[in-house]
User: Fold these one by one.
Assistant:
Number 1:
Amino acid sequence: MPRFGNLRDGPAPQAPGAETFTELLHAGGARVERIASRAVRDGAWYEQPWPEFVLLVAGAGRLAFADGTEQALGPGDWAHLPAGCRHRVAWTDPGAETIWLAVHLP
Amino acid sequence: MPRFGNLRDGPAPQAPGAETFTELLHAGGARVERIASRAVRDGAWYEQPWPEFVLLVAGAGRLAFADGTEQALGPGDWAHLPAGCRHRVAWTDPGAETIWLAVHLP
């Protein structure tokens, strides 16, 4: 049976700088998750041995990379982060929840 | 190197009822694609041997299932279609482009 939901529904970050992660689907080594963040400043670095596709659904954010570059993202903006691409969330909107869809590929 | 884009950018359907498909990423047997549709009425049936996750990003649409049920989707609404779940796009907004993100899982 199909399942339905809306990305705007789900746990909200409880404190500035917090992020919540909700797994929506896990199949064949791939994982789809909803992320909600608020007022992130210089989040933790990630470096995964798998590719990731991330879509900013609502709000605003900035990703930072190991070479010092940053990329601002608004609604509809996506990023393909290849395996081994060191990245972090540098900033998200302090005044509103920022919602992301992340797809972790096998 | 990371790649970036926006789901609102891309090929537009050229005629009422048309859909365009753009592959954004293909890795490990999973595929992420952008779909743009306009004024679809009773689209083709799909029945895939893999699970699909689909997100409506902009516009409005309705999915139909083999048991006769339909599900209306607006921005932020997602559907998880398990492997073998027969479905089709029954309707999309006649007055605006409807943008989807589809993730085909391994």
Number 2:
Amino acid sequence: MKYKVTFLPDNASVDVDANTNLFKASKAAGVYVLSSCGGKGNCGKCKVIVTKGSVESGKSRSFLTREEVERGYILACLSKVTGDLVVEIPPESRMQAKHKIATGAKTEEIIRLMASAGGCLESRIKRVYLELIPPTLDDSISDYERVRRALDQKGLDASHLHMNYLVLKKLAHTLREKDWKVTVSLFSVGEVLEIMDIFPGDAALTRYGAAVDIGTTTVVVYLVDMTNGNILGTASSYNSQVKCGDDVITRIVYATEKNGLQELQDLAVGNVSAMLRELAQKNNVSAGMIDYIVVAGNTTMMHLFYGINPQYIREEPYIPTATFFPLIRGKHVGFRIDPQAVVYSMPNVASYVGGDITAGVLVSQIHKQDAVSLFIDIGTNGEIVLGNKDWLVTAACSAGPAFEGSGIKFGMRAMEGAIEEVEIDPKTFEVNYRVIGDVKPIGICGSGMIDTLAEMYLTGVIDQKGKIREEIGSKRIRKGESGLEYVLAWRVESAINKEIVITEVDLDNLIRAKAAIYAGFATLLAQMEMRFADVDKVFIAGGFGRYIDVERAITIGLLPDLAVEKFVFLGNTSIMGAYYALLCDRLRHEAEEIAKKMTYLELSVSRNFMDEYLSALFLPHTNLEAFPTVKRELEERKQSV
Amino acid sequence: MKYKVTFLPDNASVDVDANTNLFKASKAAGVYVLSSCGGKGNCGKCKVIVTKGSVESGKSRSFLTREEVERGYILACLSKVTGDLVVEIPPESRMQAKHKIATGAKTEEIIRLMASAGGCLESRIKRVYLELIPPTLDDSISDYERVRRALDQKGLDASHLHMNYLVLKKLAHTLREKDWKVTVSLFSVGEVLEIMDIFPGDAALTRYGAAVDIGTTTVVVYLVDMTNGNILGTASSYNSQVKCGDDVITRIVYATEKNGLQELQDLAVGNVSAMLRELAQKNNVSAGMIDYIVVAGNTTMMHLFYGINPQYIREEPYIPTATFFPLIRGKHVGFRIDPQAVVYSMPNVASYVGGDITAGVLVSQIHKQDAVSLFIDIGTNGEIVLGNKDWLVTAACSAGPAFEGSGIKFGMRAMEGAIEEVEIDPKTFEVNYRVIGDVKPIGICGSGMIDTLAEMYLTGVIDQKGKIREEIGSKRIRKGESGLEYVLAWRVESAINKEIVITEVDLDNLIRAKAAIYAGFATLLAQMEMRFADVDKVFIAGGFGRYIDVERAITIGLLPDLAVEKFVFLGNTSIMGAYYALLCDRLRHEAEEIAKKMTYLELSVSRNFMDEYLSALFLPHTNLEAFPTVKRELEERKQSV
């Protein structure tokens, strides 16, 4: 028995078998429904409204308010299709089209930064134009040997020449197509010089590459002219894997289920392919001209990208299949746009510190300084690196994606409709907020959460533990279904016909997340017997990092209380580092040295980390002396009241 | 409209469209019908008899005798199916099941020969058993690095370690399958150590290889235990490409037609695969255990095997795509039995001197001798090498496959039913012959042709030019449809209800073939300013070479008139050389040095060759002084008459 399910507002329909899970039906219809847990009934994000027909729904009370239940909300992943349906996806469950994804600095700025890091346009993938001497009876060496001889004459050592099978198959024809004039794309591994591809005529100047950042949440692609380093185009999108789970752990679990790994690989490769194809078309880059693709991502993302089972990343002792992946051809991961392209991934350090962090360190150049710096990437995870030219230590904080909206009732990513700035009047407790896209709000994103937490704390709406102080007597404070909550936006202000609130559960989750990150810093420093005062610079990377207010982040104890000028925002260093490695073999090599040099600290088994974490479960910290600026502001505010 | 065509005696049926070519229908039915030209109507070999139903037949008179036409013979390739048919394939058009294919010497003999050539069991493909230390939190390097470390500890330089994509994908699982005990198969190219495959537990002793000889006419496969060099089994079959043409030129033409290349590749790979699968099953060799396959064949065969367009081999200046082919994986050519196996082909020298000849020289060891030797392979083509430890020259004679039956009215390969020995009574001109399999004859094979030619000449049935001397007045001499002919077997003696004759056209073709080969010898010698007397040894290789009578071959001037003890029969040196290279990397390297060292002489444009050829179009030669033994025998016979 088949039923038809239509999703609004997209008006996308799909025919499914009876009892099909409604979340799966939405995937089959090609419609996005938010989900943090990948459809396991654990996150309560996939709220939809059945407007016609009926479904068989499992228990999902704890995620739905009484009002929502009355209005017909159900969780898609806990519902089965039992008849023809029309389902509305409300705004808060949609992926919004307009969003802010950090795509790195501007071309000129990146080129300048790369040059100052010692970069040059000397990729390990080259193209060489050859004018061969046509064969005669007296000079009848094979086509292969003729190419080798021509390479030798160009001064390239071709004594260990390798030609892959596809090149060999088309060699004879290609050589004769434009009168023995050809262009070969080449790269060397050790002594072996390999011809990757061959083109008729002179194609030495039409060579392109791609830098790719596969984040847990977002994917960014640069199309690069390899002859001059120009970024011809930039594209970005959400990582379509998001529908299989918000964080790496959920994705790993998903990957171990039937066909899950293949699905996840296809989704990520599909994202990159689609963007690359579009960029190539826009820039008249024809097929076969993309020689080299450098991908950066965290270790789990790289396993999924290559279709390698990430299961053991999650199980103690947390072992990845590889940190340094061998070069492979585009076709092996499923790139159809340029199957011969060589794919390289930025070297990873450990299961929870990936190539995106190596790329970030490369861009930050902390590995070349005398002074000790801190590099932090507060993305979906939370990775940190401490070090200088002599040593580097790194750790992952397992902060979780709370600041990306996961586990936060009205949490969402930095998309249109997200509250991104919040101010609370210390006397009236009234709220001023700014929404991305200047529209009615549907939720609250990371920077908005930091602001909210900081403002609530500074104005005394919450105490040091994040508990709402009902006694201050604001009409915005009320009892919700899961305890006390604070109304940020009234129903009439919102786009979803509901109050947007922050609950005590949300506050608790945010404090846990910030505590994990701060404890990470503290543990690395303790490991090196250093103090925050010894840190010269704090480099903040990642899409999230671009939009946070340092002072507010210090207020809640997410960042250490250092002088504001010590903080440097680098933006998306993952894509920038991939770009460096794409164009400059020396910097690619440097990235490998960085990855080898980094000492990884497994925080999940560190007693010191546990202690630091417990101490950090306060605003800003158990030890207020460590946050003199915050202490001062609190005192000032007290006086002014 | 579909029609059913049934082929007898196999009773194999196929449904084909109206107007389907009958030769193609036979291929579709999986039935072999002989053909030298691949179905182009040029050879007259695909004679069949329609016993029921009717066909539309094109002109084929010149290939069919009046009697044959009366008996309902048609040429399959010139006939179209126009209704349901029953078609009989007469014995002379069948591939016989029992045949003689030279499969090389016996195992012990080959191992002894290899040892005397300096061989050892040291293949470049190795297996290493590793017991890894299981990871812990304090030792959490990646699986990849763990394998590298274990290899390093075994004393293998793994600083440039490569793992292919499939190994990487299964790495995590395989390591954990048998408690961190694994076996890796390895090979090195330059500095790079590549892990080809990985197996759970100890599989170091179950490693196998295959040596393969892909001849134009026959295919031979050895399954080899790589640990001790034992040949576990030998298999041989006709090269199924034969139905697309007898000689390399016809196959090249076939390859340039629509899908022809793919068909030819599939046929050869299919032959090898089928035999390998059977040998593996018989010997309980499980999938994945064949690591290495070494293939020898002529240059065209290698192009077809790899699916590389051989078109330019045929067009002046005769350029192959490659003489040295890179290593590729079994799956790329279509081996399903062991897709990960590394395939190596014996290095070729030029378009018409292939890896089978390099293999032959390796086995003959002429490249290590002070004295000058001649190496000849009279197979479908006719390749020769002259040289010693200081130099090697080589040439191909384009003798054509006359001695394999092509262009000879009753010519056939050395299969059951072939006349292989012939004696003619000098007084009565009566014939004594011996047939392979001791059955009634259906045709005559190479050694039978040499005998016939020699006997006819010595007994005066033919003159020096190969013309039949009608005047001797034998009832065996008669006028056939294409001139004079000599009856070898009367109708009642034969298995085909026809007289088996040798015609003046046949005689002419045989003399042209032997002249081409002899002229090749002479040209190479002249090139080096040497004479036959300077030749220390003549090594005769190839399936054909095993069965010829040296004295008779000298009589007709196919071989030079040297002392019989100078001739050494080596048998199938192509498969033996492949076996050497499979097991011993030193000998593999030696073969490459041989191929590089050989100077190729293009005879087709040599004026000297033309002169030598014209001089050799006599029995035994224009210059009888060059054949003192033959001269003496002629004189003795004259006296005894």
